[in-house]
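Form 7-S
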Amino acid sequence: MQITLNGEKREVAGGTTVQILLDSLGFTAEATVVERNMDILDRSVYATTLVADGDSIELVRFVGGG
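Output:
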């Protein structure tokens, strides 16, 4: 199925959850905010929220430094 990830079209397998998507990209849930179809998801639902065909997903990572 096809989604839009940070503005770019991307193919993902059926049954992919938000957590699986993050893992495949090397992102950690603790340092990533996920917006799905203009709604910010609570981290507690990443593992149970299925990505659907046509979804628009935006990922924002927190980066520390100093």
